[in-house]
Amino acid sequence: MAIQDKQMKLNIAHVWDISSATYDDKEGHGIQSEIEREAWKTLFQSLLPSGRLEVLDAGCGTGEIGLLFAEMGHRVTGLDFSEKMLAKAREKTSRKKYEINFRAGDAENPPFEAETFDVVVTRHLLWTLPHPDTAVRNWKKVLRKGGVLIVIDGLYNGGLIERKTRQFISDFLTLLVERRYPKRRQYPDEIKTELPNPYGVPPKKIIEYFRKTEFKNIKDLDLKEISKIQKEKMSFRKRIVFKPQSYLIYGEKV
């Protein structure tokens, strides 16, 4: 890894360290209801091979997605660059009495032997990576034959006038009702300029990464129903700004 690349990733990890304390409170991140929890499980179950699987949760953050797979009976490894995110994930899984093997490391270059996992899953990760195409290739390497890659991502904060207007209204209501101005987690400009997808990865681009890496049986699934469930649990001010374009891209290693 080049020195510049390594420093950028350390800077990215620092941003997520700062965000770890409130990450699960942000709309669309922490799972806020059993209905949403079951919806995710139902979706994943429809995509997975049979049997008890070895699952890599790449860029696991606070462990929300890995926990779902553990609850479904699979063996889960969580990998993240942010030590504070991992601390949150370990505390959460300990409280819920599940065992997940959490490791600090680069999700773009997972430190595992080839053909170690049956499933690699990521959520809200690909847009944060400086080399997403390299990540997809490396995820394929650690998958066994017949394994599946699941990438959940979206388009975020694209600078559109509509979104900025909704954000302003939401901030104003927070200031009016809660007497505070909401803090925002944002990458510094010097990081954004180095990322190919700083505002989210379009599904067509993810599919292109999958095809170049020769994944087969690729699927593009819209997550509108899960987003609808998430929105039902939000306060009015959060519902105003929450208008995600989220999707799941699936592929098989054959």
Structure description:
By secondary structure, this protein is α/β, with parallel strands linked by helices. The protein has one domain (3-156, 186-234, 245-252): Vaccinia Virus protein VP39 (Rossmann fold), CATH 3.40.50. The protein is built from 10 helices and 7 strands. Strands 3-2-1-4-5-7-6 form a 7-stranded mixed beta sheet, sandwiched between helices.
Order of helices and strands: HHEHEHEEHEHHHEHHE
Output the strand order for the largest sheet: 3-2-1-4-5-7-6
Strand proportion, as a percent range, falls in 15-25%
Give unreliable regions as ranges.
Answer: none
CATH class: Alpha Beta
Mean pLDDT: 86
Q: Structural class, from secondary structure content?
A: alpha/beta
In total, how many domains does the architecture comprise? 1
- How many strand elements? 7
Q: Could you say what the CATH topology is called?
A: Rossmann fold
- Work out the radius of gyration: 18 Å
Please provide a brief summary of the model:
The protein is of the alpha/beta class and 254 residues long.
Tell me the layout of helices and strands.
Layout: H1 3-19, H2 34-45, E1 54-58, H3 64-71, E2 75-80, H4 83-95, E3 101-104, E4 117-123, H5 132-142, E5 143-155, H6 161-178, H7 189-192, H8 203-212, E6 216-222, H9 224-232, H10 236-241, E7 245-252
